[in-house]
Every structure is written in C-alpha cells, then in structure tokens.
What does this fold into?
Amino acid sequence: MEATFARTVWQVLEPLHTVTYFAPESREANRAVGLRGFWMGHFAARAAPLGAVTAGVVEAAFFNFHPAMVRRAVPDAWGFATPEAVLCARAGAAAAALRRVSPSATGAAAKVAPLLERTVAVADGAGHPLFAANRGLPTPEDPVGVLWQAATALREHRGDGHVAVLTAEGLDGCEAHVLFAACEGVPVAILRDNRGWSEGDWQMAAHRLTTRGLLESSGHPTAEGRGLRAHIEGRTDALAVRPCRALTQTEADQLLGLVSLSADEVLTSGSIPFPNPMGLPDRQART
It folds into this structure.
C-alpha cells in the first residue's frame, strides 16, 4: 500500500470528523453543556479525551495555535464542564450532525466502522497523544457514533505524526502556517486569524523562514521551501499509512468507496467553509 493512500483516507475521513467544529448540533451541544463561545467549545471538545489538562498540554498537542488563544479557553473550560460531560456532548452531536448532512452515513457505518476500528486498533500510539487518548475512549453504542469516533482517532493519528515531522524540521506553529500559505496559496487571514497569530507574529515567522532560505523576500516559497513542504507532507503520509496496511486491498477499496459518498454529502451540504484552516479541499478539488 502506497503512502499516498493515507492522504486519500484523510481527504474522505476529515469531512466526517469536521462536523464537530462547524455543525449547529455541535455548537449547540457545547453551549448546552456550559462552554462559553465557539473557541472554548473547540478547545474543550478536542482536548477532552486527554482529561482536564492544562493549557500547556493543549498548546503542545495542538501545536499551531498561539498560546494566548489556548489560554483564553483552557483550563477555564473545565470549570464550566467536565471532560466527561464534553465527551458525551460531542459524540452525540457529531453523530446527529452526520445523520442530518449525510443520508448514507447510517448504512455505511455498519460496513465501514469495523474496518476503521481494526485500523485504529493496530496503530502505534507512541508519540501520538491525541490519537491514543481518542482510541482509549469507550466505543459508542450508536453505529454512526462509532464511525465518527474511529474517523476522529485516525485523523488525530495523522495530526500527531504531522506535528512530529514539523518539529523535527525545526518549524514552529506559526512558521508551519506561513510556509503552508505560501506554498498552497491559502489566504493568509484564514490561517493567521483562526489560529490566533498577529500580523507581527506572521511577519516575524516569515522573516525566519526567509533567513533559512525557505521564502523569498517577496514571501513566495523558494525551491528549497517547496521541497521542504513536499518532504513534510510525504513523511506525514508515510507515518499515517502504517495502520492502513492492516486492510487488504479489497477492504481498502471498499472503505474508500463507502466513505467517499458520505464525505461528498458532507462537503456539498455547506457545513464546512472553504477555504478552511484545516487545509481540507472541497469536493471539486479532491476529485
């Protein structure tokens, strides 16, 4: 199985996971459990599998957010809602959102969830804190909830590996975004503002990358910068594909076929904004 298979898997699983950030069911569930505002809900819901952790743990695990943005939400979030309450709210809301925007999700869940769960089970949790925390959660009774939870665990596995590669290449959170925006043409404000970085932070990160020979003075990537970006993505794919090799080629094809339909339904529902800070392409770009 080629490493690029992992990127294809991410492109079809990420839409399923992402309803937890943007769907009205998830926003309302966070509000109902006591969390204050979108970003407190975001940080608490994603960090809840780790327990009532400090801001420093979230900063390290999430990597690319400005520390001050994290600290406006954590640890205060745990005073409004326990991690256990947040986990219950996010699971129910995500499953409800998937059912609403993806009519095929219920039928796909029964066939796909066992394949995803097997992939999750064989993955190495070493150095993958968000993945390991999500894998350790109880299995939902709701089949669509099982599908969402397995998709979430695998996207966190990829994310943990991506952070490891970025740090190994000497990039900090802001620098990673600056290089990504320069190479992929993503609007700067989408990444900068949604991750809490100021214009000054962005300019200083760009200066550091220019000093390293990764950006030109104009802000465009150099050949070395594009090469590093390609290396990072390739290495991320190589790490992420390892658990996928638990599937036969027939099972892998079945998984992609069934989940792609559900992903397309999510992408065309208007639930996810484009462009977005996750770097998720829209349906047209993916196909």
User: Anything to note?
Assistant: The CA atoms of residues 178 and 203 lie 9 Å apart. The radius of gyration is 18 Å. The chain has a mean pLDDT of 96.
